[in-house]
Amino acid sequence: MPAPRPGNFLQLQQASTSIIVGAAIGTAFFKERFGIPRIAAAGLMVIGIGLMLQTS
Length: 56
What we know:
This protein is mainly α. The protein contains two helices and no strands.
């Protein structure tokens, strides 16, 4: 397994932060529910982005 590049962690952190902020904006301004499915979807997005950055 190759060693991760230094910038990957920062990219993952920025992506995960934007996903969480987007979910919060949807809840606050558009009255969307912030339940288990939304939390699971955000988590899967973060994991997917992390895997893509790991392999690139």
